[in-house]
């Protein structure tokens, strides 16, 4: 099983590296026919077919028809590549549209399904489908900082949904924690939790947030 770092290894996130890319000298001398985007896409496909436990740079290189050392022209470590694959997968998740701002032109009232609760439901169900399609995403989310551009876009969408609840302060913090734990916990068990059980748990979560938001001072 791949872990965030090998014993005794100190590493930082690939997203904290300057430019998130290989040095110019390395790129100019790299083997032709490869680039980081192609390697990342192949990593996602290999993880989907072989699973996280069987992933290796050697297997990835064989699928691309290159030597394993060729991959290191584009990434410093296997962990960097797994972080890139994680964010690539998160980019498949459709994010809910934002509610119109107060200064925007008036629009007809949205049906209940399009309020924050409907958008939260869509986001949660989409995330569950993503984890079911890519079972390796859940363990990598727990193992790595998960601060790539698609991960940050996902969190921004969640923050906007919570803004629409009207909660503030500790209540808002608690709601964010509850939703995050639900998505990573119940969502991470996508292949073991039935659709009905997931929908019921999501109903309870949303009802709790609605009840808290309805209380004076929330």
Give the helix proportion (percent range): 55-70%
Summarize the biggest pleated sheet. none
The second-level CATH architecture of the largest domain is Orthogonal Bundle
Average predicted local confidence, pLDDT = 83
Q: Write out the CATH superfamily name of the largest domain.
A: Tetracycline Repressor, domain 2
Number of helices: 10
How is the CATH topology of the largest domain named?
Answer: Tetracycline Repressor, domain 2
**How many strand units?**
0
| SSE sequence, one letter per element | HHHHHHHHHH
Please identify the top-level CATH class of the largest domain: Mainly Alpha
Radius of gyration: 20 Å
Distance between the termini: 44 Å
* Fraction of residues in β-strands: under 5%
Region (Disordered): 1-35
DNA-binding region: 56-75
Domain HTH tetR-type: 33-93
Keywords: DNA-binding, Transcription, Transcription regulation
Produce the secondary structure layout.
Layout: H1 24-29, H2 36-50, H3 57-64, H4 68-71, H5 78-90, H6 116-133, H7 137-143, H8 149-165, H9 169-185, H10 195-214
Helix pairs in contact: 2-3, 2-5, 6-8, 6-10, 9-10
Biased composition (Basic and acidic residues): 26-35
GO molecular function, one term: transcription cis-regulatory region binding
Protein name: TetR/AcrR family transcriptional regulator
Detailed description of the structure:
The structure is a single chain. The protein has two domains: 56 residues, Arc Repressor Mutant, subunit A (Orthogonal Bundle); 99 residues, Tetracycline Repressor, domain 2, CATH 1.10.357.10. It contains ten helices and no strands. It has 218 residues and is mainly α. Helix 2 packs across helix 5.
């Amino acid at each position: 099983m791949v872990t965030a770092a090998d014993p005794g290894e100190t590493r930082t996130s690939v997203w904290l590296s300057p430019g998130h890319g290989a040095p110019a000298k390395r790129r100019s001398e790299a083997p032709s026919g490869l680039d980081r985007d192609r390697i990342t896409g192949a990593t996602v496909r290999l993880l989907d077919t072989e699973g996280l436990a069987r992933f290796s740079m050697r297997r990835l290189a064989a699928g691309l028809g290159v030597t394993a050392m060729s991959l290191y022209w584009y990434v410093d470590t296997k962990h960097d590549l797994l972080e890139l694959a994680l964010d690539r997968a998160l980019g498949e998740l459709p994010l809910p549209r934002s509610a119109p701002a107060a200064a925007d032109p008036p629009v007809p009232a949205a049906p209940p399904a399009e309020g924050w609760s409907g958008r939260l439901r869509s986001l949660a169900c989409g995330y569950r489908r993503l984890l079911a399609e890519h079972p390796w995403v859940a363990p990598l989310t727990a193992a790595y900082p998960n601060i790539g551009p698609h991960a940050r876009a996902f969190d921004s969408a969640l923050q906007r949904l919570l803004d629409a609840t009207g909660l503030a302060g500790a209540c808002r913090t608690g709601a964010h924690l509850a939703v995050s734990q639900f998505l990573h916990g119940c969502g991470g068990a996508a292949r073991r939790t039935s659709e009905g059980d997931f929908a019921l748990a999501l109903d309870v979560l949303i009802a709790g947030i609605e009840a808290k938001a309805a209380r004076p001072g929330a």
